[in-house]
Backbone:
């Protein structure tokens, strides 16, 4: 049997990883500023993380949600503390798409409505309703198509107001990334996020903050939406939550009331996944990684903005987009092949930096020096 060939992959076999360095089978070291797509939040094979998982696996790795799982409550307490949402409730699942799926479903249960507002260049996942709310027709199968999702221009306050004027009390929820990842590191404006909050309050619609990629401390705040000074009704999360172990979740405002059978999952919130997530939060707290993400990220952004050949530098904290002109379209490939640095991308020519939250200024300087070297030969 062969693999189903759906991924364009780099011909590199990573066999070892530590911190922000990974090694291939030939022994070459790479600086990892991609983190497996914003997943590695506290560095590869962090000793506290490895110890937490090992200890848990030696006790019990899995049982379903038909029994008490105390580590779920430990995770909820820590998450509430670090996110500043201690009065919210936690539902655990397995991925970002599943988190968004459950958030959209919960919103519809709450107000008994069907219409969802999403935005241009949004990416919310690949499952049924999550992909229907994703602005990429190439990954929306006919069975996923629905008239219940309305796409509006990102950051367009007038269009948002008009949509609520038109659809009013038909709107179940508005879902938005604080910073669009796949969309090219586009940041939602403070007035736009505040207008979403205001209109949702007026119409009893649900504000869903998709923090799957832009959350978990990546921007220097726990959720990227926090910079607007508002609270969403539901926060979705996944990528950086388990540092590579599959886990997702939604954080749910107190106004939602749980009913047996409303949401469910077999694997979500299992012992091993929760041990991974608890370890991540413990390291974020102990090592003050939100502050590190803010400081090292701002240093990178400031230095990159000094480079004339870059069209634009966007982002916040350690979620950075470097928008390049067409003549530098090969730069990402050059950084990987010639400088041994992993980065991400967004079409057409945006390099995405999504490193671990504990990268150092020395790592940042290593990247900046390599970036400068490549510019001189391109």
Residues:
């Amino acid at each position: 049997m062969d693999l189903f060939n759906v991924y364009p992959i780099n011909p590199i076999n990573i066999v070892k990883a530590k911190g922000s360095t990974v090694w291939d089978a030939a022994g070459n070291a790479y600086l990892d500023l991609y983190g497996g797509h914003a997943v590695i939040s506290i560095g590869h094979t962090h000793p506290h993380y490895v110890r937490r998982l090992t200890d848990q696996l030696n006790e019990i790795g899995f049982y379903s949600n038909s029994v008490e799982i105390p580590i779920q409550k430990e995770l909820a307490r820590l998450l509430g503390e670090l996110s500043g949402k201690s009065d919210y409730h936690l539902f655990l699942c397995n991925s970002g798409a599943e988190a968004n799926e459950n958030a959209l479903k919960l919103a519809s249960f709450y107000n008994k409505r069907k219409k969802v507002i999403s935005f241009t260049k949004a990416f919310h996942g690949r499952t049924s309703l999550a992909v229907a709310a994703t602005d990429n027709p190439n990954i929306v199968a006919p069975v996923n198509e629905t008239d219940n999702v309305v796409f509006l221009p990102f950051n367009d306050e007038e269009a948002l107001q008009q949509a609520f004027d038109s659809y009013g009390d038909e709107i179940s929820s508005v879902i938005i990334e604080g910073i669009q990842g796949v969309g090219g590191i586009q940041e939602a404006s403070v007035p736009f996020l505040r207008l979403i909050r205001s209109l949702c309050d007026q119409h009893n619609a649900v504000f869903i903050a998709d923090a799957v990629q832009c959350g978990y401390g990546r921007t220097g705040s726990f959720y990227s939406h926090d910079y607007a000074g508002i609270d969403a009704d539901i926060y979705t999360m996944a990528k950086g939550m388990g540092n590579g172990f599959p886990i997702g979740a939604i954080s749910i405002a107190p106004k939602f009331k749980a009913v047996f059978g409303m949401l469910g999952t077999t694997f979500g919130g299992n012992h091993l996944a929760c041990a991974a997530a608890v370890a991540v939060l413990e390291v974020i707290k102990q090592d003050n990684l939100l502050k590190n993400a803010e400081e090292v990220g701002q240093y990178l952004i400031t230095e990159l903005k000094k480079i004339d050949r870059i069209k634009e530098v966007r982002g916040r904290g350690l979620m950075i987009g470097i928008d390049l002109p067409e003549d530098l379209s090969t730069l990402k490939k050059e950084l990987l092949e010639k400088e041994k640095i992993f980065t991400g991308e967004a079409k057409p020519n945006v390099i995405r930096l999504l490193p671990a939250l504990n990268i150092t200024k020395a790592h940042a300087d290593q990247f900046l020096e390599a970036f400068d070297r490549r510019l001189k030969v391109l």
